[in-house]
Write a structure and sequence with these properties.
The chain is built from seven helices and no strands. By secondary structure, the chain is mostly helical. The protein is rod-shaped, with a radius of gyration of 30 Å. The longest helix has 14 residues. Helix 1 packs antiparallel against helix 2.
């Protein structure tokens, strides 16, 4: 559940323990863009309207954000692999046609 901007401001003002994780969740797109820490701080503070985010917050978030990222559902990957495995079925030949010396081609050729 994403926090609203007002809730985020209250968390930052009270210096709540989970403020940095909520800040990352709310502004994840800024952290994914790999801006400098200073520019990221300016963007976030400008959007919040208050100078609540500091350099230590951004450094902490960058150090821990890999742990916070939501895991991609692996079901799509496993279904793709299962489909690929199913499509690689071996083609079988009719053993009787191989034993018959009069066989010169497929049945479709005679049509």
């Amino acid at each position: 559940m994403k926090a609203s901007k007002e809730q985020l401001i209250r968390l930052l003002e009270s210096r709540d323990v989970r403020r940095r994780r909520k800040l990352y969740e709310y502004y994840e797109h800024y952290f994914q863009q790999q801006h400098s820490a200073r520019f990221t701080i300016e963007l976030i503070n400008a959007d919040l309207g208050y100078a609540l985010v500091n350099r230590q917050d951004v450094k902490y978030i960058r150090a821990h954000c890999n742990q916070w990222k939501t895991a991609q559902p692996e079901t799509s990957e496993t279904t793709q692999q299962a489909v690929e495995k199913k499509s690689k079925k071996p083609t079988w030949t009719n053993q009787e046609e191989l034993k018959n010396p009069s066989f010169t081609g497929s049945k479709l050729d005679s049509l």
